[in-house]
Fold each of these.
Amino acid sequence: EVAKVFRVRPGLERRTAESLRTSVQWLKGFGIVDADVSRMLRQNPNLFDNHPEKRDGMVKWLKEFGLSDLEITKLVYKHVRFCFTSRDIAEATAQWLTALGLDKSSLRDILERAPSLFEIKTVSLKAKFSWLQGLGFSDAQIVRLIRKIPAMFTRSLDKNLKPRFALPEQQVSAGKLVDFVTTRASTWLFCKMADCSDRIQSSL
């Protein structure tokens, strides 16, 4: 199975055999079978340069965070990219969320639902927080959005969030925008951009 990947993604051949072998064995150590390893290689070829300090550091942090071996295995299986994130970035994000008032249970819930949030530097998260404040959201309302729709904060501010929020701003009165976004965001935040306006209109 893994050999097939080299025919589909020839760029992988530039990696050393030892680098790839080490990464593949690391995945198999979680019980991941060849077919799924090859899928991960196809989807994330750049992750399989040998960076043991990143992945081992992240797994250690997850254990310190309180995740069981089974929970870590599920995370690796579904979101292998996350395990190659800098531990420093993940820790800084966790500290920022804690400072906002989220407890460890809430952080674990976010980690399970939207682990990519912990791949984002806090400077980017703070920019989204400030932008929402400028739209009229209170700190408490923004924290509620983080709890309810953490994946929203993984989206690009300029390329995704601002264009999408501009649509309800055009169709919803300023006084009702916060309530509309808080209660209806999931219906239009993650659809195709071309469908956003219709989704918003149907939610009014």
Amino acid sequence: MGIVGDLFGSGKMFLPQVIKSARVMKKAVGYLTPFIEASKIQGQSNKGTIVLATVKGDVHDIGKNIVGVVLRCNNYRVIDLGVMCPLERILSTAEKEKADIIGVSGLITPSLREMVNIATEMNNKGMTTPLLIGGATTSRKHTAVKIWPAYPDLCIHVPDASRAVNVATSLVNRDQKYIGDVR
């Protein structure tokens, strides 16, 4: 999926091809999941808990679903809240489940405003949970200019699903070099 993400990002692959690749990956992971689960060491804990949601007003979840699959395959506990998820539900679930990371996504432009609302409310609540931003209309620049000021803790744009595991691992392990670089 890393190659697919790079090709899509550079304009050499288009959304229908990405969707087809995602469907193939989902089927492959579905087949492999029982084997992955069986190979886990009994009593081994997961690497961390991540709450994922497509923000209120948006029903597009292909990228979020891919991120969830990739994270689960790498031994993260993923709580997927689905689509059209209000900020109150995202934040209350993160608090209740003691999430290590919150990831929000959206495809349509109004989703960007909702992401700012989520960041603002996280700041108002005094939260310190890292916030991952993803989706086709998101960008590093928008995250830095609009979302970061609303939530000056850790707010990171993840350009595609293939990057999610490395970002999550760096955050859960409190990799100070990575955190310093993204700030």
